[in-house]
Amino acid sequence: MSSPLTYPLPLLPTIPDNLEDIDARHALPHLMALMKNTFIRGLTRVHACAPLVKPGHSALPPFLNYVFSLLVHLNAHLEEDATFFSTNALSEVATYEINPDTTAIRASIASLLTLVSGWTKVVSHHYFIRASYLCAG
Questions:
Q1: pLDDT tens for each residue of 9-54
Q2: What is the DSSP letter of 137?
Q3: What does the longest C-alpha to C-alpha distance in the chain come to?
Q4: CA 100 distance to own-chain centroid
Q5: Which 8-state DSSP code applies to residue 16?
Q6: For residues 98 and 93, what is the distance between their CA atoms, to the nearest angstrom?
Q7: Is the peptide bond between 29 and the residue preceding it cis, with omega within 30 degrees of 0?
Q8: What is d(CA 117, CA 131) in angstroms, rounded to the nearest whole number?
């Protein structure tokens, strides 16, 4: 069983070099770290903001949209990583550390997407009814 995550999530190490000036084979891990750091920052932000956005808060609909979008992009990124590292010459050199099996993570993301989508519909319906009631006269 994995240990619980602690926030803020630690970022992956990066280098200050211009990655366009580095051989692509050496730049790839650093580019991957930069992209994953974007997701790590997003997840950390969601963790920090979630307790502040209570039901009925005006920021709830855009917050849920942000969470949904973050999860969709994270899932797509993990799927592309799995495809990229398994369908070309890199599959011969990609170790588990570089390309771990993300099946369980993607299944969790799919579950979260279903939850957030349901919450978004409930919140949108609530705000629509509230706005309609206010505009009724």
A1: 999 999 888 989 998 888 888 888 899 999 999 999 999 999 999 8
A2: -
A3: 68
A4: 17
A5: S
A6: 9
A7: no
A8: 21
